[in-house]
Design goal:
This protein is of the alpha+beta class. Helices cover 50% and strands 15% of the residues. The protein is built from 9 helices and 5 strands. Strand 4 and strand 5 form a beta hairpin.
């Protein structure tokens, strides 16, 4: 070894210690010199530590990625709520659902359904042309969210599209592959409604995802809709 190289390594051993591939090569060379019948416990310990370090680095990256996604989701929901708060009437509110909120929340369709016994057909599924507030018969919201499964009643559901989804979003220009449905309770539960988000991405809404931000958005919508829907 050249004296200059040797002097550099002695002055800064981290040149070798911080190089994972170089350290592994040196340890492997040591094993060869020791022979097949001798086990270098230092090498074994180093291999295990290297493996654990790799796992920790992977966990760290996953935690950072999850934290970033949470921050991004929080920012999107807050921006969407602020956008809706600026609306002065139901028409402006509905127009925002059709345009601005789709871009802010990165979804492809938003519906708000409100149960009302007045002037409705017997069909459970409403007719519609674009994302807006629609009237449905009493009981529709619970039936749609839980798909008729009363034993597992829920007020919020994230899932891939079902046959009912296809009917609800049948007049949308894109094929909805996943949805999020949140029950709305207006005027102290006197009026029941639902907000439904649709995405062309089958993995955009999945069971097991966090729902706190969606619940917050739904609560904000409830307070705003109560000004115009009684």
């Amino acid at each position: 070894m050249e004296e200059t190289t040797r002097a550099e390594l002695l002055a800064d051993p981290s040149i070798i210690l911080d190089d994972k591939e170089l350290m592994e090569s040196l340890l492997t060379a040591t094993d060869i010199k020791l022979g097949n019948n001798v086990v270098d416990l230092r090498h074994v310990a180093m291999s295990r530590l290297t493996h654990k370090l790799g796992e920790l680095e992977g966990t760290h990256k996953s935690v950072v990625a999850a934290a970033y996604q949470n921050l991004l989701g929080t920012k999107q929901i807050h921006q969407a709520v602020i956008e809706l708060m600026s609306k002065n009437n139901l028409d402006q509110f509905v127009l925002s659902l059709k345009s601005d909120l789709l871009k802010i929340l990165n979804v492809d369709c938003i519906f708000i359904l409100v149960e009302s016994p007045v002037g409705l057909d017997s069909d459970l599924l409403p007719t519609h042309d674009n994302p807006h507030v629609q009237s449905v018969i009493p009981g529709f919201v619970n039936t749609y969210i839980n798909q008729g499964n009363e034993t597992k009643a829920s007020k919020i559901k994230l899932r891939q599209a079902t046959s009912a989804t296809d009917q609800l979003f049948e007049n949308v220009s894109v094929k909805i592959a996943s949805e999020a449905c949140i029950e709305l309770n207006l005027n102290d539960n006197e009026t029941i409604g639902m907000i439904a988000f649709g995405s062309i991405d089958a993995n955009f809404f999945e069971p097991g995802q966090g729902t706190d931000l969606l619940k917050f958005f739904a609560c904000a919508c409830e307070k705003m809709l109560e000004r115009w829907i009684t």
